[in-house]
Each structure stands twice: as C-alpha cells, then as structure tokens.
Amino acid sequence: MATGDSEKRKMPWIDEETLAVDESRQFDVSAGRSVSIRMGKGSESIEVRGPNGAPEVTITFTADGPCIRLGAARLEIDTPGDVSLNCDKFSVNAMSGVSLQTPERVEVRGEEVLLQMERDVDLRGRFIRLNSPESLDGKYKLPEVPTAHPDGCGCNHHEAK
Asked: Strand, coil or helix: what is 75?
C-alpha cells in the first residue's frame, strides 16, 4: 500500500468513489436508525442516530485514538469473564445512586480514601476494624503501631523495669 493510501482510512464496505475527503454520507438502516460517516481533515467520525434523531453511538477518530460515546437509554455489559478498565482517571456521575454488589470480597486500594457525605454514614459488618494490624482472613498484616515510648525519650511515662 502506498503512503498516500495509508493516510486514507479505508472502510471495506464503502469504495473510494462513494465517500470523498471532507464529505459526509448518511445511510438509513433498520428500525428508523441512520448511520452517518463523516471524513475530513483531522475530523473523522461514524455516528448512529436513533429514530428520534438523537445520537446513540458516536465514534470519533482523533490523533490520540478513537473516542466512543454511547447515548443509549441503558447500557449493559454481560460476560461470564472479567471486565477490566485501565485508564488515567475513572469518574462516575450517577444521577440517582450507585450500587456495588458481590457475594465475594470488595477491595479498594489506593494512597488515600476520601469519604464525604451530606448525611449520615452507616457502616455495618460483623467486625469493623480500624487500624487493625491483621485482616480477618489473615492475608495481610499491617505494621504494629507503637504503644509505648522508647527508653530515654524524656516523657516520664515508661513503666519501671
């Protein structure tokens, strides 16, 4: 493939004559949906619009890679395998609630956890351990926190030897 050909994004289901650079085409598909393909200098995208004209899926090709935006009424991921997200920053903005449920262990790891609530915080569990040197399952052990001052510190709180 020549260098000029590699600069064009080829879509095998559309020949080069159908879609020229700096052009947009729309194709009507089933259930009243349409697919738009836009190609231009620095701006390439594929968009699926619903019967009401609202964008449902948009894929924009940028210099940093593709950006996928879903505007569906509901999004479900159903897999018997793992789901992994690797990113710089992960943000969730839910309008009415967030729920995490599993019959297994939940782990949150990081340098710091900030929990800020406008109302009460209800923490329930068989055991609630704060600053405990051991986990319930014994998988990890935190360093012991000293409970006595070292000899010679001058505080006069040492037990007599």
From this structure: coil
CA distance 25 to 35: 8
Distance CA 70, CA 47 (A): 10
The answer to whether residues 38 and 28 touch, using CB atoms and an 8 Å cutoff, is no
pLDDT at 78 over 60: yes
Residue 3: band (very low, low, confident or very high) from pLDDT cuts 50, 70, 90: very low
Q: Average of pLDDT values for 124-131?
A: 82
Q: In what order do the strands lie in the sheet with 23-28?
A: 23-28, 34-40, 43-49, 55-62, 65-70
What's the Cα-to-Cα distance from 103 to each of 77, 83, 99, 123, 124, rounded to whole Å?
A: 19, 17, 13, 18, 16
**pTM of the full predicted structure?**
0.55
Q: Give the helix/strand (H/E) hosting 26.
A: strand 23-28
Q: Would you list the domain boundaries of the chain?
A: 13-70
